Amino acid sequence: MKAIVVLGLILALLFSGMAMAYALGASAVFAFWLTDSLRFLAAAPQRIFSQLDVFAIMAMPLFVLAGELMNRSGVTRALIDFSMLLLGRLRGGLGHVNILTSVFFAGISGSASADIAALTNTFVPQMERHGYDRYYAGALTASASVIAPIIPPSIILIMYGAITSTDVAALFVGGIVPGLLLAASLFITNAIIARRENHPGGATAELPPLWPTLRRALPALSLPGIILGGIVFGVTTPIEAGALACAAALLLGFAYRELTWAEVAKSISRTATLTGSIFMIVSAATLLSYLIVLHQIPDALVDIVTSWNLEGIWFVLLIMVLFIILGMTFDFMLGLLVVVPLLAPIAVAQGAHPVALGVLICVNIAIGLILPPMGEGLLMVSTITGQSYWRLCMRALPFVAAELVVLFVLAFFPEIILALPRAMGML
Fold first, then answer.
1. Res. 409: pLDDT tops 90
2. d(CA 227, CA 235)
């Protein structure tokens, strides 16, 4: 009953418009009072610091900064032009270009928010000018952004690795095939809708010039290989790879002559704001996790799961359904920081591979960004473009369905995730 009261308070505060960190923090302190555990708050600072003082988390601000610099440096335009060369003359070509650009951008930024911020203002007006429904353009842009947190470098995978002590490099490699499968599901869905709705495209579509486009795009396209290759082959740690990505973004920005020192300062300021916000949410969620452990809720949860006789794939499916529900109602950080420490150890103890489980959960969390009624990716597109949020949600439903199919295929066949890490000798 007390848990329901605390959950109700979190929901009420979130729906009132309160920031996630404050809603979680206030609810956590209230929960300590409600359970007569205020005396344990004396140890809270140590618990919070131990959660933040994790080596892998240090990579996160660097990849956030790299994404911010890419947004301002002309790299996005180079990637869009290159994608247009490859796919621009297919039926629904601009939709395919939108998806492919997100794949390329994912290999640099690792953030759905960075993807949406970089591509929404470019693709939605451009697709509308070429005859696409503007809500379709917005929904596709939001849906394609789901790829960014899965294809490495991924901020969500870094956070998951830090929370569960799972090898971040193995998680990165494990995310490559699922990210490409998500992209393939969007390509197929876009092609079907393009044929049904007679979207523009074909042999007459105007393409950018070949050699200038390649010359501008190749340096940007090399970045994902450099970043991932350095981590996988042990040349760099994830933190060093993040620093390398920032340095490369600076060099490319100045080489393209689209980045100024004023823009660099804005990027650093924006990174500090985002990183601080994430760390505040982590700190607040740590309080709740601390209370959960104090009252032996994980042990009670194990007993409940045991009584349901849910093991193996069925328990993994239960986790997937739970995260889908969380994605529809909460910020993804809540599931990552509160639910993962509770359920992931149980699944691993039952035989789930920690890398496969981590990638599955992170794919689920990423899809939650476009799940109504609280899909943050759709909310961002709606805010940037001024589109009706609910009409945007309706247009996104076919893409949501396609990505959920990929999720459950991965859940039933985890070897799809593990094949590449195993082939590279990481497992």
1. yes
2. 10
